[in-house]
Specification:
Largest interface: A-B, 24 and 25 residues
Number of strands of chain A: 12
Largest sheet of chain A: 8 strands, parallel, barrel
Structural class of chain B: mainly beta
Radius of gyration of chain A: 21 Å
Distance between the termini of chain A: 55 Å
Number of domains of chain B: 2
Radius of gyration of chain B: 27 Å
Order of helices and strands of chain A: EEEEEEEEEEEEHHH
Structural class of chain A: mainly beta
Number of strands of chain B: 21
Distance between the termini of chain B: 92 Å
Oligomer: heterodimer
Helix content of chain A: 10-25%
Number of helices of chain A: 3
Chain lengths: 122, 218
């Protein structure tokens, strides 16, 4: 119970942990492993159970009979058929807004887009 | 239009179509263009349509309906086997497959078995959208999305919705935001078979409860 940080090269969990698990490498919650708390890692793979927040700087995979209840942030996500997930997710970065795209397409006159001189002098 | 590699053909050799009038099932070869219902004899349209301007005529077909880049459909309910939208769709739709191409815009309610939002395509739907599977290369914004099968957002695609599916895949370079519910399918119950009586040897000793043996010894 408490905070566990393990930085290199990764961590495989087959026990029950209450608290925060943080790793700079890959985190694998194997079958039978349970985490009640948050998990931070580069690549997170879950075959066991997690109740808490998941934060991955790369990929999050819930495979086999893995089960997750909690919010997640990652760059890619895979929830396999047969596994369970319930929570709010944010994956990747939002695409460029259409207004910005239009601005790039509709070339405005240079006089309008160039900042005035006093701005740079400040 | 560049369709994804995994894009399936509409049908292989034959298909079942349901009569628009009486609801009877009719088995027809895929090449058939016209058909009369075997039960009510009313015609069932199997032909393809292409809409290149503004249209609001009633279309009910099991063929392919293509709304061209400059096309716009704003009529009553549109029924089609495969509905390819390259322009604008502002009418209720019911189709087997909905393909939304580049620069296309879908802003109406409807149902589809499979949804393909291609790169550059945009779908904004109110309410809950139910389907079998969804493959998103473009942008999809819907209040709630319920898929019986896979829900995949590929590189460059974007999905903002609360989703319920049997499996979810969001590739690197794609964007997703919303609540996810993935429930594993119930495991099939394996019936426990009792060993056949014939397999037991005839002279095997009967298992007697401990109490009986003790009382017998006393």
């Amino acid at each position: 119970m408490g905070f566990l940080s393990y930085f290199y090269p990764g961590v495989d969990v087959t026990l029950m942990i209450r608290g925060e698990l943080a790793s700079k490498g890959a985190v694998k919650i194997l079958k039978g492993g349970t985490i009640i708390g948050s998990v931070i890692g580069h690549k997170i793979s879950i075959e066991g159970q997690v109740q808490g927040t998941l934060t991955s700087s790369e990929s999050l995979e819930i495979i086999s009979e893995g089960s997750v209840e909690g919010n997640a942030t990652a760059m890619s996500l895979l929830v396999e058929s047969g596994s369970a997930y319930r929570g709010r997710c944010r994956i990747g970065h939002p695409p460029a807004t259409p207004e910005r795209e239009n601005e790039e397409i509709d070339h405005a006159p240079e006089t309008k887009s160039t900042p005035s001189r006093w701005f740079w002098q400040k | 239009m560049n369709l994804p590699e995994s894009f399936p053909p509409l049908s292989s050799s034959a298909r079942d179509v349901c009569c628009f009038s009486c609801g009877a099932d009719n088995h027809v070869p895929v090449d058939a263009v016209t058909l009369h219902c075997t039960r009510c004899s009313k015609p069932i349209d199997l032909s393809d349509y292409s809409i290149d301007g503004m249209s609001n005529r009633k279309i009910q077909t099991y063929g392919e309906v293509t709304i061209g880049i400059r096309g716009k459909y704003a009529g009553s309910k549109l029924k089609a086997g495969r509905l390819i939208v390259l322009g604008a769709l502002e009418a209720q739709f019911e189709c087997d497959e909905l393909v939304v191409g580049k620069f296309a815009l879908v802003t109406s309610e409807g149902t589809a078995r499979a949804l393909y939002v291609l790169t550059g395509g945009k779908v904004k739907l109110p309410g809950t959208f139910r389907l079998a599977e969804a493959h998103i290369y473009g942008e999809l914004e819907v209040e709630a999305l319920k898929a019986e099968g896979i829900l995949a957002v590929y590189k460059g695609g974007s999905l903002v919705s609360d989703i319920e599916a049997s499996s979810v895949k969001v590739e690197r370079g794609a964007y997703f935001e919303g609540n996810i519910v993935v429930i594993p399918p119930p495991k099939p119950e394996i019936p426990v078979e009792a060993p056949p009586a014939a397999e037991l040897p005839a002279d095997e000793e009967k298992i007697v409860p401990a109490e009986e043996t003790l009382s017998g010894q006393a």
